[in-house]
Amino acid sequence: AGSGAGADMRTEISTAAAFVTRLLRAAGGVGEEQLRCFCECLQEAMREHYKHHWFPLVPSKGSGYRCIRINHKMDPLIGKAAGMIGLSHERLFQLLPSELTLWVDPFEVSYRIGEDGSICVLYESPQPGGKAAKQLESRTSCQEEWRIGRSSPSKSYNMMTVSS
């Protein structure tokens, strides 16, 4: 039972990092070796960042701090890992969804693509001594959504990219 908090985060962090890595792989143009390195660097950055912000007894505490976000700004953790393999922020914006939110909490990792997409759970485990994990009835729709990506029309999408 190693270093307390650090050991507990492993599954959640590797799930989140693998998800971002999958998005990059799906976009194409990044080599496998680079992807492997990106995934490791991202996990390392997350471990470092979450070290004192991980509360298994109060899983939602610190959730905002651990939230990974791309929203016309690149998340610093993703940016840092990408920098290690020579990917610029510009390139990342081409490869990743322009709106991505990833919540990395004790016992649950979930994400949303787009501002009003549905929230999809990537990983969930029952909390020790807590209530049993809820059924993931939305899993299939999420898989679909992930595949379709950005092709779903969204009412708030009337080209808000004028901000430059």
Automatic annotation (TrEMBL):
Which InterPro entries does UniProt cross-reference here? Anti_prolifrtn, BTG, BTG-like_sf
Query: GO cellular component terms?
Result: cytoplasm; nucleus
Q: Which domain of life is it from?
A: Eukaryota
What range(s) does the Anti-proliferative protein domain occupy?
96-115
- Which BP terms does GO give this entry? negative regulation of cell population proliferation
* Family the entry assigns: Belongs to the BTG family.
Name listed for the protein in its UniProt record: BTG1 protein
